[in-house]
Amino acid sequence: MKKQLNITIIGNVQGVFYRVNAKEFADNNNLSGWIKNEGDGTVKISAEGEERDLKKLITWCEKESPGKTLQIEEKWGKNKNAYNKFEIKY
């Protein structure tokens, strides 16, 4: 079932190619949405796709991503078909 997932990643996640690697992961797992560095040092992701693929994204953020993830805040919602592709926002 398709869903939307909004994530805030807290840790050493800026300046370590986090966004580029997350985009590659999303593209390889049929996810659409965006990723963005925030002024407070966190990274935010809004993604849509199959629930199993979104869960893989969480695992990637926790264990496989560059940098050091200390905490992840998740908010699940209904798929809105809001995105056509996954992009890096600046």
Task: Characterise this structure.
- The longest helix is centred in the middle third of the chain and has 14 residues, at 51-64.
- The protein has helices at 18-28, 51-64; strands at residues 2-12, 32-37, 43-50, 68-78, 86-89.
- The chain is built from two helices and five strands; from the N terminus they run E-H-E-E-H-E-E.
- A hairpin with a 5-residue loop joins strand 2 and strand 3.
- The protein has a single domain, classed as 2-Layer Sandwich (Alpha-Beta Plaits).
- By secondary structure, it is α+β, with helices and mostly antiparallel strands.
- It has a five-stranded mixed β-sheet, with helices on one face.
- It starts with a strand and ends with a strand.
A few lines on this structure:
The protein has 90 residues and is an alpha+beta fold. Helices cover 28% and strands 44% of the residues. The chain has a five-stranded mixed beta sheet, covered by helices on one side.
Give the arrangement of secondary structure elements:
Layout: E1 2-12, H1 18-28, E2 32-37, E3 43-50, H2 51-64, E4 68-78, E5 86-89
Parallel strand pairs: 2-5
Antiparallel strand pairs: 1-3, 1-4, 2-3
> Distance between termini?
30 Å
> How many helices?
2
Number of strands: 5
Kindly give the count of domains.
1
Order of helices and strands: EHEEHEE
